[in-house]
Amino acid sequence: MDPTLHAVWNHSIDVWLDDAFETASQGTRMLAGVQHLHNNVVPEGLAWAVETFEEVTFRRAAEGLKYFGFPDLDPFFTDLLANRDDQDYINSRENEYFELFPEDEELEVAILARLSAFPDEFDDGES
């Protein structure tokens, strides 16, 4: 991972954990939204995330993915949330989530491209 990307990546995690999302720069917010959802789905599962997180978490992840040039997952997330009481249905869509969500390398390339083109939209926590 590029050192600049590494710093931005780590800082965006802190932004969410420190409840500084609203005051962070745009790119940092977008990355934080993507990371927060995905970093919890991977170890805990999609059903857990749907049961645990509020709608805003999914909206921020969808917005972040669009910001980095990926397809809009908002309709997918809207459907999941509308069916959040049906665990069998949510579980049946977990593979689809992983098919729709970009691979780590693909996401890293997209983030680095955005960071290179618009460095002022990101914060590494050092400034």
**Mind telling me the C-alpha Rg?**
14 Å
Quaternary state of this entry equals single chain
Helix content: over 70%
Beta-strand percentage range:
under 5%
Secondary-structure element pattern, one letter each: HHHHHHHH
**Low-pLDDT stretches:** none
Mean pLDDT: 90
Number of helices: 8
Q: Main β-sheet, in a few words?
A: none
Number of strands: 0
* SS-derived structural category: mainly alpha
The span between the termini is 20 Å
Any key phrases for this structure?
127 residues, mainly alpha, globular
Question: How does this model look, in words?
Answer:
The protein contains 8 helices and no strands. The mean pLDDT is 90. It is an all-alpha fold and 127 residues long. The relative contact order is 0.17.
SSE topology sketch:
Blueprint: H1 3-17, H2 26-44, H3 46-52, H4 55-67, H5 74-82, H6 87-92, H7 94-100, H8 104-117
Helix pairs in contact: 1-2, 2-3, 2-4, 4-5
What's a concise summary of this model?
By secondary structure, the protein is mainly alpha-helical. It is built from eight helices and no strands.
